[in-house]
Amino acid sequence: MKNRILAGFAALISGGLIALGPQYLFKVCDQTHSGITQCFWTARAEIGVGGVIALLGVAYLLFGDPRVRLGLSVALTLEGILAALLPGVLIGVCDHPHMNCRLATLPALNVIGLGTALLAVVNALYLYKFYKAPDIPGNA
Questions:
Q1: Which of 44, 51, 49 lies closest to 23, judged by CA?
Q2: Is 53 within 8 Å of 15 (Cβ atoms)?
Q3: Which residues pair with 56 in a beta bridge?
Q4: Cα–Cα distance measured from residue 33 to residue 95, given in angstroms and rounded to the nearest whole number
Q5: Exposure string (b/e) for 105-116, b if CB count within 10 Å is 16 or more?
Q6: Mind listing the pLDDT tens digit for each residue in 99-120?
Q7: By the 8 A CB rule, do 44 and 87 touch?
Q8: What confidence tier does 132 reach under pLDDT thresholds 50, 70, 90?
Q9: 3-state helix vs strand vs coil in the chain, percent to 5
Q10: How far is the CA of 67 from the CAs of 82, 128, 133, in angstroms?
């Protein structure tokens, strides 16, 4: 019970931080006169990734079956890795070394995304170790 609640709320909080952080807490730089920057698109993509992480956290709170929670932990691991890859590799942030997106947004999303993935892996290992599958009749 405690595992389900802690993991669910941790995913819910990290999903909210990933989705709303680039918009409000560790803001990306403003759009320039030359057009929309990479930072803008990274922030937009993180809204979707963070939203999925938050929804997985809600599902984690609702489902009690350890097998379902194990699957959700695997999904959270992949989503956390995706959240960390978006600003650094997949879309990126602007190249200016003194801009807020490079100084605040990139490290914050990396830490939150990889932290989410790490916690999900630890939780998956915990569930895998302590869950014992019921014996299926007829299988020898």
A1: 44
A2: yes
A3: none
A4: 16
A5: bbebbbebbebb
A6: 888 889 999 999 999 999 999 9
A7: no
A8: low
A9: 75, 0, 25
A10: 23, 8, 9
